[in-house]
Amino acid sequence: MKLSKSLIAGVIVLSTWLSCTNTTPFATTSSSADLDSLVHQWLNQHMDSLEAGATRLQSLAATPAKEAELRAAFSDCRRLFKQLEWFSVYYAPATSRQLNGPPLPEIEVEENKMSDPAGLQVMEELLFPYDTSASAALLKEAKGFISSLIPLRHTIENTRFDTAHIFDACKMEVFRVEVLGISGFDTPLCGWGIPETGVALSAVKEMMAFIAAPDNLLKRLDRVIAVTEQATSPGEFDYALFMSQQLHPLSAAMTDWFYSAGLQPIAYPQALKNTARTLFDSSAFNTAYFVHNADAVPTPEKVALGKMLFYENRLAGNGQRSCSSCHMPEKALTDGMPKNTSLDGSATVLRNTPTLLYAGLQQAQFYDMRSPTLENQVLDVLHNEAEMQSSPEKVASWLNQEPALKSQFKAAFPDIQDTILPRHVTRAIAAYIRELHPFRSNLDNYMRGDSNALTGQQKKGLNLFMGKARCATCHFMPLFNGTAAPSFATTESEVLGVLVAPGVAKLDPDMGRYTHTQLEGLQYAFKTPTIRNIAKTAPYMHNGAYKTLDEVMEFYNKGGAAGYGIDLPGQTLSADPLHLSEEEKKSIIAFMESLTDH
């Protein structure tokens, strides 16, 4: 979207005014007490600026002012928030969602309730495009935004800042801008993601100076920021180059400095290891973070047992089906069928078989997300009459009759006294699945510095994936599923409006998550699966109705169900056509083919 000259001028003037009110110099620090004091001072000063900016927006909304003036004030609020994002999202994630969360209802399945969206992204929808009839709603959101700043101030007051946590928050912000910032995840309509990335990284630079980062590292940050400030439209921005030659060397340099300086990292485990230099490091993930029981943490012994069971036909009640019957290694652990045949051969299973690769690095299993853990998924499949028609108890029974296997289980699970229990069965299989994350694709090699690992067409496809096609706003790197870095705390679902067949303007009747949780926002909602290895996992979608990636691309290009004239009020996929050319669609497909593990 092009901005008018008057709007651009307004943004520049107001931004300059605000920056001029926020020029108090800060020195680096040599003691923990000094650091804590400096960070508090910095945060309070920036909070004052953000509150002033939000108050100005509220005043303009109450007038109401003209569109250009409102958008300029909104732009400043966003930029002022981005200066605080490294702190806000890290130290106060719930408050941050109120300030800049997705413009969709927040669904809490456990409490069986929905909360209305709020914050900057909601305001964006009211301003792009703007209608004076929306002024009351905009005023309400501005007031709510100011109210949400109160708990953020409380967080500042009640937090003691130290080097380890500030560094971790800064590093997570670098990862966050790579996955969410530059893709325009939270700026889908105004398109300010790239310049706002520079704002966020400028704050990171100030914090790194506070913790005495060396001058060469601060200069590297300056170079990265300078790229975001170049006058380039989102459609011309080279995301591939920016990530591989700017952001990754930056996060790697930050990590190398931290450890070479002998600093101690935070003690508690996170999804990413403290030592991860980039999001695409082959061993970046801490698998144990995704495990809900200490006894379920994978070990070589558990993984070996799980692999044995995965290929064992005796898992099924009739002794004729194993996990690998539907999850074949040569098909990236799928089966190549729209829907597999039920155990007795009389029908098909409910949905298409998803890959198990990278399944251990997400927070929900199955298309309808009904299982929070892999252990629960294994239990569900074993009990399912159409799939296995068995149980962990039955599997444990025959395992206990084989001394060699019983001895191996005892070695893997020290808590076993004399008998293999059902939970040992599910945990062994889950341990094997958790280790199925090879990260050995051409895209991984490219992100690790091999500039020749992608073809020119694939690089163009990556840029389209991140930009014009907006694929990366749902399929988050580096997993390319609905589990977003850098926290990987939640796995998202989307309402796409999948059709019964490509090009047929009829909605598939499967209600998805709504089947198990009767909340309106979950009608036709399905987990966003990984597209890693997608070249091997046809057919596609939960119903397996899409045979080719060309058919999938055309569905998205038209705007999902809405693009086919179907009224689906809860559709979370943008109804706007992407206007991708045939050449652009082929480039995106070529990029997705680069996600195949070797």
TrEMBL record:
Gene3D superfamilies in UniProt: Cytochrome c-like domain, M75 peptidase, HXXE motif
UniProt keyword Heme, yes or no: yes
Compartment(s) where it occurs, according to its Swiss-Prot or TrEMBL record: Cell envelope
Coiled-coil zones: none
Protein EC: 1.11.1.5
Cross-referenced SUPFAM superfamilies: Cytochrome c
Chief location of this protein within or outside the cell: other
Residue stretches making up the Cytochrome c domain: 301-437, 456-596
Keywords (A to Z) from UniProt: Heme, Iron, Metal-binding, Oxidoreductase, Peroxidase, Signal
Position of the signal peptide: 1-20
Keyword Zinc-finger: no
UniProt GO molecular function: cytochrome-c peroxidase activity; electron transfer activity; heme binding; metal ion binding
InterPro entries: Cyt_c-like_dom, Cyt_c-like_dom_sf, Cytochrome_c_Peroxidase/MauG, Di-haem_cyt_c_peroxidsae, Imelysin_sf
One GO location term (cellular component): cell envelope
Matching PANTHER family: BLL6722 PROTEIN, CYTOCHROME C PEROXIDASE-RELATED
Protein name: Cytochrome-c peroxidase
